[in-house]
Each structure stands twice: as structure tokens, then as C-alpha cells.
From TrEMBL:
Name assigned to this protein: ABC-type quaternary amine transporter
Database matches in NCBIfam families: 3a0106s01
Top EC class for this record: translocase
EC nos: 7.6.2.9
Pfam families given in the database record: ABC_tran (PF00005), TOBE_2 (PF08402)
Amino acid sequence: MSIEISNVGKRFGDFVALDDVSVNIPSGRLTALLGPSGGGKSTLLRIIAGLERADTGRVEIEGVDATGLPPQKRNVGFVFQHYAAFKHLSVRRNVAFGLEIRKRSKDDIRRRVDELLALVHLEQFGDRLPAQLSGGQRQRMALARALAVEPTVLLLDEPFGALDAKVRKELRDWLRRLHDEVHVTTVFVTHDQEEALEVADEIVVINEGRVEQIGSPDDLYDRPANEFVMRFLGPVTQLGDQLVRPHDLQLSTGAGDRAGVPGRVTRVTRVGFESRVGVITDDGQAVTVTLTRNELLALGTEVGDEVRIRLAPESPTTTSTTPAQSAPVSLTKKFASAGGANLTQTS
């Protein structure tokens, strides 16, 4: 169900956690609240859940004013970063807890818990205690417990932040598949850009208590509203007075090639499937170019080689009307006002 947040403000003493925030979260979508630590994203999630009270503004869930409602009246499922499991109860009893509180029949509870344990692939662990599960399994248990009461909204506060990188990747894939099965409106907080880009249908970028931009992962990555969004949502490098993505740059080594900015290779670093080439331009500027391993091998460049840097013609940050105009768009021309509306690329 949709969530509408209108002009919400929240202060903790002199600290402004949220400053006149307005966001419309569509029904049935998976939305990420993304931003740096202390930016206000967890505070906004807790206000949606009713765990914090906004100083100003309004929260509507499913068209109902929930601003003054306590958490138990909002029909919201909440998953914390550290699971908040009942350590003395089995996995099955943890998942059943919310249903028992609501005094569902034993048959209904058994059926619902069996369905959820199968959904999160924990059916063989129902009789174990939480301490006997891995971190990823405990998080899946927490998600099953939140879904047990059939919430209209599922809220997750950095759900994978306490897990190692490999388990986080596995759970990201699993969460996306789970959401596609249950279709509950889901909002999750993260400061991990890759996590938001990979999992979310829509991303809300929050910084210093304000919404910087709202849009799809592609919109935000290719058409950032401002410098903060571009720098926060992926790697950047600077060429002249313009910010560009390192993978949107090309290198050439031909003696007769006079297109692009001249420079000299200072460092070549292999990082998995990609290679990062450091270049110092003739003007003394340090630029990073990202190539695939095969591109680097085909180029044959080494430290000390003279090269030229130019923006790839297919890059989203170019006007590309003619080859001569294939250059980075000026930062002041490329970025529109925050919010992501009517973003344009002006030559």
C-alpha cells in the first residue's frame, strides 16, 4: 500500500534530523532510503513505523492518516539490523509470536508459520534456537516473523549491515526474489549504494535531513540531480572542470590521435574483472579511467605511456550530436534542481 510523507520535520535538540521531507512511496514497490550515516534515513523509517513521532508534517499509509497512530495500529512489519530475536524461543515460535499475540487459532498459526518457513527456506530449522543459525538465516527468520502478521508495509532498517559481504550479496538477491513473490510495499534503509542499485525499484537519496533526489536506479545513476548524488551513487573522476564516471572514459595511444586530453599513465591496478588506469594530464590533473581486462590488454598500455582521454560517445553524460561534441557536459549544465524532475543535458 502507498505511503505518503508530507512536510515531515524532526529535531533532536539542536540537531535537525529531517527538514521538511516529502516523499510518495508507491504501492507494491521496493523502495530504498539511501544516504550517508546521520543523513536522516533511519529517522524517516522509524517515523513511518510510528517508533518516532514527527515534530511537523503528516504520514499517510493506505490513504489513512497514521501520523498519530501507535505502531501496533499501523499494520507495519519492522525488521531491525540485529534481528531482535527472542533467544529462548525456537525459530518456529519466533515466527509465530505476532500471530499468538493476535490470538489466532493454533491451526492458523501452524499453517502460516509452515508457509513462511518454506518461503524463507528455513523449514528444516524450525526447532532450532536463533543462536544455532547463521547470520543470514537469522535475518531470514526476522523477515518471516515480520511477514507473519501480513503487514501492509514492510520496513527494514539496514537489514544486512551486520553481515559479511558474501552473505549480504546472497540476501540481496533473495530479498528481491521474495519481494517479487509477496508484493508487499517494502521500504529499506541502506548506506550501500550497490545494494540500493541492485535491489530497489525506486531510490530516495537523503542527505543532511533533506531529499536530494527520487527516481529509479537508472535515473539516479545516469541523470543525477546534483553533485552530491553523482558522487554518492557510484565512482566519479574529474576531467577539467567536469565530473564523469571513470567507466565512461576511453583511452587511446595512437601517435596520430589528437582527440581528447593528453596525459601519461602513472598507475595500472587490476581489481577483479576491471582495471583502473591512473593518468596525469599535461595540465597536472589526476584522472582515473576504468577499463575491462580485455580492453586494457587490447590497448597494451603500461606505466609511463602517453595516452589521450576522451568521453565514450555512448556515455549518458554527452550531447553526442557529432563526434567533435562528444565531451563531458559541464556540471552546472548537466545537473538540474534536486528532486529528479525534468533533468536535461544541455550542450
